[in-house]
Amino acid sequence: MDDRSGEPVITWRWIAPALTGVFVVTTSVSGALGSTAEGGVKVGWITVQAISALLAFAIPTVVQARERRRYREAEQARVDARAEMRLAFNDALDPIVRHLGRLAAASRRDRETLRAQAVPFILNAATEVIGPDRARACWFVLDDSRPRRLRPDECVGRAGLARTAFVQGTLRGDDTLAMIENDEVRFSANVDEDPPQGWDPNIPHDYKTFVCVPVISGDVAYGMITLDAPAAGDLTRDDAGLLRLLAGLLGNALAIDA
């Protein structure tokens, strides 16, 4: 839709060339008829020819001007969106970077507390910068006891806590633990159409799309971060890349003299 007039843009794009063609033909016909006419009739045909020629030139000029204006507006919107994204990312990353600095400079006695405080910083950044409205980010701690498991520890965003523990020996648990061991990502744009391994559709879930990324530093795995949203398609693979960036920062924080 045209954002000013409300007219369908595609309709104007079809009509404009048709009108231009009509006026080009009218210009030629009126010129031929005017050349054989006399008196007032001749003046009339010449007037029609002049008006038709003017419109045949003016219509494509107007269409081009509209297209250029629409392109400039779209380009400005993209520039504004990029600026807003950079600002949002700066606002989200600044406290994380500052916290990493405090953690690196802290005494060994204070580092355990500061490492734990890094988790909500990362989860908040995930919901504010990456996630859509009502997104939820959760931190799962890797427990190396037998059987190994990923247990939910903390969530930020939409109300409700993560309830699933990913336990070794189950289909879903083995797949998720393999994701961490292989430093992979799990993503589903729509769990109804692309469910993860071991997904039980009979169990109620309050999300339709999710991303899971491992939290690793060097060769040490600490757990995973998930980001989910209630509407299918709210998350994309690009969001998975951003979430990996935040997971890397959390891994660095947890690795400082752990």
Would you spell out the secondary-structure blueprint of this structure?
Blueprint: H1 9-36, H2 39-105, H3 108-130, E1 136-143, E2 149-157, E3 166-167, H4 171-181, E4 186-188, E5 209-217, E6 220-229, H5 237-255
Antiparallel strand pairs: 1-2, 1-6, 2-3, 4-5, 5-6
Helix pairs in contact: 1-2, 2-3, 3-5
Structure description:
This protein has 258 residues and is an alpha+beta fold. The chain folds into 2 domains: 9-77; 106-255, Beta-Lactamase. Helix content is 57%, strand content 16%. The protein has helices at residues 9-36, 39-105, 108-130, 171-181, 237-255; strands spanning 136-143, 149-157, 166-167, 186-188, 209-217, 220-229. A hairpin with an 8-residue loop joins strand 2 and strand 3 (166-167).
Supply the CATH class of the largest domain.
Answer: Alpha Beta
Strand order of the largest sheet: 3-2-1-6-5-4
Number of strands: 6
The Cα radius of gyration reads 31 Å
CATH homology superfamily of the largest domain: GAF domain
Largest sheet: 6 strands, antiparallel
Count of helical stretches: 5
Instruction: Report strand %.
Output: 15-25%
- At CATH level 2, the architecture of the largest domain is 2-Layer Sandwich
Coarse morphology: elongated
**Oligomer description:** single chain
Query: What fold name stands as the CATH topology of the largest domain?
Result: Beta-Lactamase
Through-space gap between termini: 56 Å
Overall structural class, as computed from helix and strand content, comes to: alpha+beta
In which range does the helix fraction lie? 55-70%
Q: How many domains make up the coordinates?
A: 2
Instruction: Name the average pLDDT.
Output: 83
H and E order: HHHEEEHEEEH
